[in-house]
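B., you asked whether I could sanity-check this one before it goes into the benchmark set. Here's the sequence:
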Amino acid sequence: MARAFFVVIGAGRVLASPRMSKRLYVVAGELSGDAHGAGLLRSLKRRVPALEVHGVGGPEMADVAGPGLEDWVEDAAVMGVWEVLKRYGWFKERFARMLADLREFRPDVLLLIDYPGFNLRFADAVKRECPETRIVYYISPQVWAWNKGRIPKMVRLLDEMLCLFPFEQPIFEKAGLKTTFVGHPIVDELEEKRIPGVVRDARLVGLFPGSREREVARLFPMMIESARLLAAWNKELKFEVPAASSKLATHIRGLISSAGAADLVTVETGTSHSLMQRAGCAVIASGTATLEAAYYGLPYCLVYRVAPLTYALARLLVKIKHIGIVNILAGREVVREFVQHRAIPGLVAEELKGLIGDSAKSAELVAALAETTGKLGGLGAHERAASAVAAWLMENPTHQ
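And here's what the prediction gave me:
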């Protein structure tokens, strides 16, 4: 088929001719990647209306992409070496099935979103078996933190890296990988969810134990005990936990009931971003929620616990001082981190007492959070990322 034309209209919109068929295979394995991937796909489909999408992701991506994309994140989003090893057979079977689907689909571009343990192996297999497929990685693996030795392999496998943080671009470019800093899509996503005129309740403490059941099981009992200590210190305090799903809410209520804390903690579903704007302070599990809270200016402390084997291996591999992305972005400890054996009720409660009782300390933290999140690139990350992917789709002549 002859090459179809496309025109550029308005703010970078590309309208492809209906005669042009383009194919994208996409892989995301966690809820955060699903949210970012959905935003990218929306922008990309505006640019390339005839786009066919296959792959795996979460509910948001499936809603945008249609029947070619399977929602697998509830099973795929496991964290830690031991947890992955226990499910090795399941991942091996899924890997083989996805590779077979990709071979049959023959995409112009493979878009990998975060999820490096799986996605870099998948990129290697695709590079061998479908060398005509361009491979773009969105949301860089944190090799700068734990394994710079992987960078040469990524240079060999990938056609382009789309980075969320400004300090990542020179690391990959220096190694010879085409790299674009597109900014963090969290800016667009959180601005859409900002509540006009919301006022913080200084008596409300947010408890954010994470979005995975294992993570919640490790961290939430400690958060409940921290809440008990704070309630004994100030009886006017209220405690709320936002569950990422109805299933997780049931799990959390079970932990609250077992701890005899039903009168202490309120559970809501799907209110994470609302709580980040209403609460006076919070304790938050390490992950995307810490960056989201920082963007909304919520004073908080970070907690983190994993299986002992996973932690021991991480200490050998991790090459940076802090684990919180806000602290990494700032280059200093902006937010207090309570990791592994330090993630205990006494230390967490004392830190939150300081944020509740010392207005100057809280205001200083809020200012530091604003300065740090100002480095995220501003609005338009989804559009910038979609533009980069669209360029590869148009360059590859496989399905024209």
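One thing to flag: DSSP finds 19 helices and 15 strands in the chain. Otherwise nothing jumped out at me.
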